[in-house]
Design goal:
heterodimer, A: mainly beta, 7-stranded mixed β-sheet, 4-stranded antiparallel β-sheet, 11 strands
């Protein structure tokens, strides 16, 4: 699992409330990613980071912000959660080396916005 | 979009049979990868094939890549019930100076014992 943990693993919240999801890695990888997975859409990239304080938008970034103040943690924030953000969120890291483009995924966070 | 599209969306076979899944994409890629996802779990990387490669093997997995047709196939030989999972192709290409993976919607494979 490349030392990736996500917290919380499950969360139920109400529309309009802020939510922060945390991804933690233990192996000092430079690249980290946040995806959401929805039926019929596969995985879609929300934001990614290529270093401390270096982040960029993905395909579905509206309504989400991220922060990376240290290498091991990548936070995804929903400033004001909406029902359309009900989804399973996966964090991933990208390894360096022979398979430079391989990504390893965390176990996911199931978020329900009521 | 360069998004890969898997075909079929769902596949049901008997244990011992071979399973073939296909992936098509739209733009030039650096490499193509296949991932597996068991129900309720994260994705697990299976195999990567670079754009200058045509075929790759890993255990019971065989991947082919045809860049002229912008397509790839994943063959699982002698399938087992434990192979039941969703399989995703992901294309890697450089966009805006950085390399990103774009995932398809997946093929749901069921292997019946």
């Amino acid at each position: 699992d490349a030392g990736i943990t996500q917290s919380p693993r499950h969360k139920v919240t109400e529309t309009g409330t802020p939510v922060t999801l945390r991804c933690h890695q233990t192996e000092n990888h430079r690249y980290m990613y946040w995806y959401r997975q929805d039926p019929g859409h596969g995985l879609r990239l929300i934001h990614y980071s290529y270093g401390v304080k270096d982040t960029d938008k993905g395909e579905v970034s509206d309504g989400y912000s991220v922060s990376r103040s240290k290498t091991e943690d990548f936070l995804l924030t929903l400033e004001s959660a909406t029902s359309s953000q009900t989804s399973v969120y996966f964090c991933a890291i990208r390894t360096n080396g022979l398979f430079t483009d391989t990504q390893y995924f965390g176990p996911g966070t199931r978020l329900t916005v009521l | 979009s360069q998004q890969g599209e898997e075909d079929p969306q769902a596949l049901s076979i008997q244990e011992g049979e071979n399973a073939t899944m296909n992936c098509s994409y739209k733009t030039s890629i650096n490499n193509l990868q296949w991932y597996r996802q068991n129900s309720g779990r994260g994705l697990v990387h299976l195999i990567l094939i670079r754009s200058n490669e045509r075929e790759k093997h890993s255990g019971r997995l065989r991947v082919t890549l045809d860049t002229s047709k912008k397509s790839s196939s994943l063959l699982i030989t002698a399938s087992r019930a434990a192979d039941t999972a969703s399989y995703f192709c992901a294309t890697a290409a450089t966009q805006g100076g950085s390399e990103k993976l774009v995932f398809g919607k997946g093929t749901k494979l069921t292997v019946n014992p």
